[in-house]
Design a protein that fits this description.
This protein is α/β, with parallel strands linked by helices. It has nine helices and ten strands. It has one domain: 2-enoyl-CoA Hydratase, Chain A, domain 1. The termini are far apart. It comes from Streptomyces yaanensis.
């Protein structure tokens, strides 16, 4: 079988690379499971000081795989796993991010992208809503700016993603931008990192505890609706859905 998530280590930093180029690293049930398993290994590995989450190809993650989507509860579990991991998770983005992929960025503690990366919340255009991913995004982003992109599905660039709070930083060379970050993580003690991350994520986990069940149910209801079926069919057939004027 093809390895959907590749693992490599370098001086305490474990890099997990999403490697499903055939569907632009969209979150299929199999890819979500593979990433969850890789994160579990990182959590148990005393040699892992921090995790970098990155990708092959020109897309970090295209959102849910419409042909084989993960169960909404599984996606909630994956996002929570990133937030709860007792080690910092750093997103390294050199391509495009759409829909559910933005939830992965929101779950990460630090997110950096190259300036040619693009972002879009495309859920409204296929008849659903960014329900589950709001668990990680709403606590960490500017609500006024986010509202525009949630409601319109417009594409925006890395500079705007930094302004919203979706990204920590961006630059022409993402590895150059991340070099001092990774150096800092290597200099920090494992205990210090774990306890500091817990302070930073406490409010996010409170929102999971409060809202995860309702947002999971909302996601499942919307994805099974007639409008979503029309939206997803239109997307796969590369045409406008019936509601477009």
């Amino acid at each position: 079988m093809t390895e959907l998530v590749r693992t490599a280590g370098d001086r305490g930093i474990t890099t997990l690379t999403l490697d499903s180029p055939g569907n632009r690293n969209a979150l299929s049930a199999a890819l979500a499971d593979a990433l969850a398993e890789a994160l579990t290994r990182c959590g148990k590995d005393p040699g892992t000081r921090a995790v970098v989450l990155t990708h092959t190809g020109n897309t970090f993650c295209a959102g849910a795989d419409l042909r084989d989507p993960p169960d909404p509860a599984a996606l909630v579990g994956l996002l929570r796993q990133i937030v709860e991991l007792r080690k910092p998770v750093v997103a390294r983005v050199t391509g495009h991010v759409r829909a559910g992929g933005l939830g992965l960025l929101g779950a990460c503690d630090i997110a950096a992208a190259s300036t040619d990366a693009t972002f879009a919340f495309t859920e409204v255009r296929i008849g659903v809503a960014p329900a589950v991913i709001s668990l990680t995004l709403l606590p960490r982003t500017d609500p006024r700016v986010l509202a525009r992109y949630y409601l319109t599905g417009e594409r925006f660039d890395a500079t705007e993603a930094v302004r919203t709070g979706l990204l920590t930083t961006a630059g022409d060379d993402v590895d150059e931008v991340l070099a001092p970050v990774l150096d800092g993580l290597r200099r920090a003690s494992p205990q210090g990192l774990a306890e500091t991350k817990q302070l930073l994520t406490a409010n996010v986990l409170e929102i999971f505890d409060r809202d995860a069940a309702d947002l999971t149910a909302l996601s499942a209801r919307l994805f099974s609706s007639p409008q979503a079926r029309e939206g997803m069919t239109a997307f796969l057939e590369r045409r406008d859905p019936a509601w477009v004027w």
